[in-house]
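ok new one. same drill as before - structure tokens go in, u give me an amino acid for every spot. 369 of them this time. try not to just spam alanines like last time pls lmao
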């Protein structure tokens, strides 16, 4: 009987240990792990080549010609090939790849992409939009993995996100991407227009504290379901390394830009047909002459007849106080709002016309050159 009890106790203890180990294993395979397993195979290294021209003087002439500073010195022109790596991700079964425009901006050639399984595939440039900093490539291959696109409007501040990419790619002799985990620190973040020289639409950005480092640009920001909800684009840092202030282009914008590029070979330029000045930059007598009650906004300086805004009733002297529900304080607010729209999208302007509020509605048209 004692032996039987001892055996039963041993079996019970073994079963309890097995259950505890199973619980540990299950806790390790959490949502973050499964999301990375789902998304990482579709993340690629983008291999680009830059050719730099340098004037070099043969050593035997260097001291002589430099000493006399003779302009016709026998310099030799040499071209040096510099290889670099950025990140991107395959977003559909046809092999289309999303990345940042600035990843390939200065490249003389986009040579290939390398998948996490080590395959190196030829790739071609499809198109890019410099203002939104989005570019599309297409890999030539079969049975390619892809990342499903998520809804960047359906984000919660504080939810888990994963930045996947190839930081310091040229230093790593390994095709597997790096994953870093953080949270959505803020959504719809308005970045100062001076970032990007005021020429790029770094507005409505997703902010995250997931580590983003050089080489991560162009890789996906992924939610806990393994869906791409943004393109990792930039960081704020004095050292050049991550300090927890990373920003991603929202996927809803990137998706629409990519669709336009694939369909038309370019992003069609959105056009409203008017220009504005900041109200607060105008002299007081001019503001008084406008008869406006607005204390902030933009004054319509000129507008083209036949433009969609003109046909909808917008006129010079109108003070625009909001566009599509967003408060307007400077001209860049209107520029960025229109850049973020696509041909056929509706626009609703609230304007102060000599102290009376009015609403102007029209659809964005394509700017033809």
């Amino acid at each position: 009987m004692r032996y039987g009890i001892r055996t039963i106790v041993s079996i019970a203890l073994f079963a309890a240990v097995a259950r505890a180990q199973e619980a540990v294993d299950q806790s390790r395979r959490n949502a973050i792990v499964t999301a990375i397993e789902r998304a990482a195979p579709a993340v690629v290294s983008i291999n680009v080549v830059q050719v730099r021209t340098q004037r070099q003087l043969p050593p035997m002439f260097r001291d002589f010609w430099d000493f006399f500073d003779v302009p016709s010195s026998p310099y030799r022109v040499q071209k040096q090939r510099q290889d670099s790596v950025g990140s991107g991700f395959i977003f559909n079964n046809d092999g289309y790849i999303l990345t940042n425009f600035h990843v390939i901006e200065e490249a003389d050639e986009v040579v290939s992409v390398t998948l996490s399984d080590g395959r190196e595939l030829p790739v071609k440039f499809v198109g890019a939009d410099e203002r939104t900093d989005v570019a599309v490539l297409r890999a030539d291959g079969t049975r390619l993995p892809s990342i499903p696109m998520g809804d960047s409007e359906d984000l919660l501040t504080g939810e888990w996100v994963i930045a996947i990419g190839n930081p310091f790619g040229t230093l790593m002799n390994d095709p597997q991407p790096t994953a870093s985990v953080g949270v959505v620190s803020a959504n719809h973040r308005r970045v100062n227009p001076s970032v990007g020289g005021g020429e790029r639409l770094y507005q409505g950005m997703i902010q995250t504290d997931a580590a983003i480092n050089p080489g991560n640009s162009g890789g996906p920001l992924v939610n806990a379901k393994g869906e791409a909800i943004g393109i990792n684009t930039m960081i704020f840092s004095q050292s050049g390394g991550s300090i927890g202030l990373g920003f991603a282009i929202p996927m809803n914008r990137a998706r629409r830009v990519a669709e336009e590029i694939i369909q038309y070979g370019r992003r069609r330029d959105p056009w409203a047909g008017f220009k504005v000045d900041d109200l607060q930059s105008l002299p007081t007598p001019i503001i008084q002459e406008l008869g406006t009650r607005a204390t902030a906004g933009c004054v319509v300086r000129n507008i083209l007849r036949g433009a969609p805004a003109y046909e909808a009733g917008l006129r010079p002297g109108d003070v625009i106080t909001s566009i599509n529900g967003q408060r307007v304080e400077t001209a860049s607010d209107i520029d960025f709002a229109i850049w973020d729209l696509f041909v056929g999208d509706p626009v609703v302007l609230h304007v102060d016309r000599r102290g009376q509020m009015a609403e102007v509605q029209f659809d964005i048209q394509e700017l033809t050159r």
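The mean pLDDT is 86. and btw The chain has three domains: 41-139, 160-264, 270-366.
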